[in-house]
Design goal:
Elements lengths: L1 H14 L4 H29 L5 H4 L2 H16 L16 H11 L1
Helix pairs in contact: 1-2, 1-5
């Protein structure tokens, strides 16, 4: 899981460059690492928690994934609309895409 997280951080860092191609490659790498983590996390959780609490912690993976999706959608509200005078010079998209490096 740590390796997948490091690969995801590299993908996020690559996507922060100004080129469209590096953005696409970075997002692909990040998406791959998230897919790996979503496949590994349930198995890791089931192997580490006691059997009596698996029914409690099993659905938590879905709750956490959906919470991350919600946070991403809320953060997208920071990006200015096309009618805003700061639309061309805004770097709000960088904050939104760099957020996964923090967590």
């Amino acid at each position: 899981m740590i390796i997948a997280n490091m690969i995801g951080a590299v993908g996020v860092a690559i996507s922060l460059y100004q080129s469209l191609y590096t953005f696409i490659v970075g997002r692909f790498i990040y998406g791959f690492s998230i897919g790996v983590l979503q496949a590994i996390a349930p198995r890791f959780l089931l192997s580490t928690v006691p059997e009596e609490t698996t029914a409690l912690y099993g659905p938590m993976i879905n709750v956490i994934i959906r919470s991350g999706t919600f946070i991403g959608n809320v953060m997208a509200l920071m990006i200015p609309v096309e009618t805003d005078p700061d639309y061309e010079t805004s770097n709000a998209w960088r904050i939104m895409f760099a957020f996964p490096i923090v967590f």
